[in-house]
Every structure is written in structure tokens, then in C-alpha cells.
Amino acid sequence: MDLDSALLTYIAEGRELLEEMEDILLRLEHEEDKQESLNAIFRAAHTIKGSAGLFGLDDIVAFTHGVESLLDQMREGTMVLKPTITTLLLSSRDHISDLIDYVEAGGNKITDTLREKGDELTQQLNDLGVGVNQTAPETGVQKGLAPAPTETVSRVSGSHAESDNWHISLRFGPSSLCDGMDPLSFLRYLGTLGEIVNIKTLDDGIPPAEDMDSEACYLGFEVNFKSNADKQTIENVFDFIREESLVRILPPRSELADYIAHIHELPEEDMRLGEILVRSGSLTQLELDEALRQQSALQAQETSLPLGNIVVESGMTTQTVLDAAVAKQSQVREGKSKEAQSVRVDAEKLDELINLVGELVIAGAGSALNAMTTGNNVLIESVSILNGLVEEVRDSALRLRMVQIGATFNRFQRVVRDVSQELGKEIDLIITGAETELDKTVIEKIGDPLMHLVRNSIDHGIESPDLRQAQGKTSSGTLRLNAYHDSGSIVIEVSDDGAGLNRDRIQQKAIEKELITAEQQLEDQEIYNLIFEPGFSTADAVTNLSGRGVGMDVVKRNIEALRGSVELTSVPGKGTTFRVRMPLTLAIIDGFLVGVDKSSFVVPLDMVLECVELNQTNREDSVDRNYINLRGEVLPFIRLRELYMAGGVAPRRENVVVVQYGGNKAGLVVDHLLGEFQTVIKPLGNIFRHVKGVSGSTILGNGAVALILDVPGLVQEVASMEMRAMNSAA
Predict the structure, then answer these.
(1) Closest CA to 148 of 213, 80, 196, 52
(2) pTM above 0.90, yes or no
(3) What 3-state DSSP class applies to 211?
(4) Which of 1, 2, 357, 627 could lock 397 by a disulfide, CB 3.0 to 4.6 Å apart?
């Protein structure tokens, strides 16, 4: 199946609407006023159904019609939201997503598995509703629920409609008889359009006998009218008395439902409120004109009253229909506003732009180098200005791919809800730092590792309600997701207030798996870090969530593949925190270029604190130990010449680049400091993947290749060297 651009747009927008539905459903249970959220979910479902009908996606239309009907009952207040209903709606949302995925894959006819799942959910929807299948109007397929009955229609006099018929309130003008208009003739003609079920004559307008005018008409009628005619046809009966008389036509309950459905199905056009009511049939053009005249008259008296209030208070339409029209108007305007604020761009085009900007950065560096060799000051200045603009273009291009992490965090609302219910636990998810931004490519790749960490906290970290209460805690546990920027990186924290890690149990499992020996004396943190070893698990049994020994090692490996790191802290009885550090972008960074003999290295600039000279005193003090005295602070360092066997002889004046990562400082001893450098990150080939302390490569302006240093790995290496030296001394 060759999907055209329109269908691809529907698929993309459908997924966005489904994500919106899930987000609203997950917070709906905790909201006091649910009406606005229910309207938003209904609009999303209705948009998905209506758009699917344009492409002939009957299975999506038929199933979504049932979901829409249930939501309509909830909006009308005839069904109260309960956790079981939320679960059913979430499952229905998943099924719609599966149907859209199947369409994208090119399927023409849904599989038996999908059909059985849809039938099962439809039956559950019907069991919650009136229990009668409703034919979806777009397809003729029996799916979903019958529309929920609306509230009874109020008469002008304040009483309530007793049957599903039209209600007509007539107040003939005093001059009707003088104008040759016989009230009974209008009632007789009305009878030709249907059946007058009941009529009540109103005489409250008759004055005392001495004040009566024999030519004036004081009568009024309340008519219960059964007919298949529309409102406009009924109104036409009274055309000749409209100017002097009061005519109010209230529709039956079934007509109200039709009006609301018609409003929902109106095209996504920016219309005035009165136009929406007229096009839906709930208001006639004459009624609208009369309401506008009333509004103008009030404005002339310096009194302002919205048109909606006028048509409802005058009995021209009902509040329910008006609310639907206002919601439709808001939906259209919100959609227009979003269209004006954003443009949908294919991700591949964005990646291509970033690649071209990267090549532009490299070419700019080469041009700057060539300009310097000419000694032409005018050319050097021009190239400098050009490179400044290139840098701005680079920053702007990278910002295009920066997205907030909140959307990723919100995905876990559903995970926490479903998994906690499966395990019989009560867990509250608290999200902070959702506005923190990072590169879209990082966002896409960090989702799975975070999923492992969240599920691990739910399964292993937070205790059952009974156990928590026995320990003096609240029965409901807390899982926190937090994100913030730190030293040019993004830090994502997954923390819980559970039992914390069991040191003895981890140690015993590690001994059983021969990861360590019983004689080894390890610090608490070293034992905790054993959970990242391949195949390690403390679960006693294999479940859907854990016990297979696959998880934490995958988390660490995937994060490190993104030039990130993961660490943990745990307090027994208080909880555990996993802290993931990731680079903000995987494409272009600001670097600090250093040289060792003929080799060049790039240090990420945001991790560089300062540069100091390795003077003679420090040289002599560091002959047998790899640290110097930095203003009274011990600074361990590593010589890049020795680490990478760069060769050559160290110059008389060496330099130390002081770097910081995760609160730890270290020094990198180099020969030359070459200044700041815009670095386009190029991946290393598979043959170099296991080289320590290198995260990538870049191309310099002269065409030479420079290695990008993995500062987190080097800092860890320095810490390990210091620990080995201390153990040897002991």
C-alpha cells in the first residue's frame, strides 16, 4: 500500500492525539473538575474517527465510535469515572494505536487478533453503556454504544418536557387580530406537519375587563408537537407573526443529540458562534438575527451581554447545545493557533541540515586557518565575521532538535499505573524538570534505559502497602523523575522512597555467580555497583518484570554508548536514586583543542575549568605520584602522552587542563594549549570502539584528525589509578 502524504499526516496527527488522550486520562482521576478534560478527550477521539472516515478506515471509525459514545455519556454526567473505566479507555486507546500502526504497515484488512481484541473491548464498552449496539453512521458497521440521553429540555415557563417531542411556546402580539391573523389558523397549519399531542392555552396576559381591548389578542399557547420536520420548517409556519409575536421552538431530546453531533462534525473552519448554531440547525437565521438585534440594543444602552447568554435566556436554544458550539469554536481556534506556531518537518531533513552545518563548521575552520597564513588582516577579519555567523547558524540548527524531556517523562505515567496495579502496590509518580531540553536524538535513545530504571524501582525498590505501613511509612510509595542541566550535560534522576538496596543480599548473589570472592573486602558503593554486571539479579523467581538477569547491565551499556554514565546512591530503608548523565547533543560541541607532540585532542569545553602550568616544583613533586597541589587542593592527573603513547619528548613547559565531571576533578597533562574549537563529532569505527578515554573524532581545519576525549572515562580512570596507588602504599 503506497501511503500518500495526506494519510501519513493523519497517522502522525493521530498518534499525537492518542498521546494527548493518554496524558489526560492518567491525570483525570485526580482532577476535581473533569469537564474540560473530558471535552478534550472527546474532541481527540472524534477527530481521529472523523479523519479516519475520510480515508475509508472503517475499522478505526467503527471502534472509535464506541469509545466516543462512552465519553459522551461521561461528559453528560450519566456515567461516573472509575478506575475500571479509565483502564478500559486506556486499553481502547492502545487498540486504536495498534490499528493506526497496522494501517501504516500497509495492511488492507485487520488481522484476526486485532479483530478479536476490538470485539472484546467493544463488548466491554457496551456492558458499561446501555448494552445496545449502535450503528456507526460513517460505516454502517455495528460497533460502540448508543448515544447517551441528554438532560430534559426546559420549557420557557420553567416546567420540563415530558416526552421526546418538540416544545413550542407562542405569545401572539396584541395587534395580531387587527392584522388579520387568526391564532387558530396557525395551529391548524402546524397540525399538517405532524401531531399536536398536547396544547395548553395561556391567559395570564388578559387584563381586567375594564381595561380589555376587544380587537387585541392576549392569548398564548404551550404546544407539545410530534413531528419529523426540522426547526426551520416549523419556524416557517409563523413567518407572518414573527415581528410582533414571541415564538420559541425547543427541540426534543433526540434532536439535541443530533445538533451536538452535527456541531462536532462541522469542518475545522474559524466560524462565529452564531454561525455554528445556525449550521448545526439548532438556531434559525431569523432567531440569530433577533438575538443580534437584542445584543445591539443592549450595547446601545452601554450594556454588554454575550450572544450565547441571549440565545439561551431567550429560549432559542439550550445550554447543552451552546456548550458544544463553544467547545467546537475553541477547538478550531486552538488548532489554528498551533498551526501558526509550529511547522511539521521530517526528521530526516532535520538530520541532513545538521550534517550540512557540521561540514560548514569544518570548512569555516579550514578557511580561518588559511586566512591566518596569508597575513592579510582584511581577509582575516572577514573570515572571523563569517565564522561568527556560522557559529550562530550552528546554534540555531541545534536548537531545532532540542526538545523538552517532559514528553518522555509523561510516558511513564502509564507504566507506573499499569505495573503498580499488576503488583498490587500504590505508587505516586512525581515529575520535576520536565521543561529541561536536550537533543532529539538523545531523547529517542534514552527512553528504553529509563524504562528499565523505572520498572526496577517499582518492582525491587518500593515495598507493598502492608510492608510499608509495618515500617512506619505511608502505604503509597513515591517515584520521582527529575532532570536538570549540569556542566554542559543533562542529569536525569530516577529515585524512590522504597527499601533501598540490600547490601548483604547483593554480595551473596555476587559470590554465588562468582563475580567476587568471599574474601574480598568491598565498600558499600562497590557492592551496589555489582547490579550493573551482566546476568546479575536478586529476584527469587522469573516474572514478567524481572528475574532473568537482563536489565541493569543493558541500561549501563546503552547509556555509555551515548557517551553517558549512570551511577546510584542508596540508603537502606530510605530509597535508591539512579543518576544518569548524558551529553546535550550528539552532533556538534564546543571543544578545547590541545596537543601532545604531533597529536591533537579535543576536550569538551563545558567540562574545562581552567588551565595551569606544570611548573618545576610540581614536576619534582609528581615524579612518583600522579597528583599536584592546586591552591591547597589535591588534584590527581593523567599524562596523555603516556596514556596514548604519543611519543616524542615532553617540552620544558607542560600544561595541565583541569576538567570536572559529576563533582570530581582531574588534570590532563598536555604539551600545547591550542584554544577553543568548534567540534563536529564523527563516530569511531568498530575497530576503535574499545579504546579507553576516546568518545569520537573530528576533522581539523587543516584536514588532520583529532580525537575527542571521553572526560567521564578519563576521570574514572584517574580515580582508579589513585585508588590502586593508595592500596599499593597500604
Answers:
(1) 80
(2) no
(3) helix
(4) 357
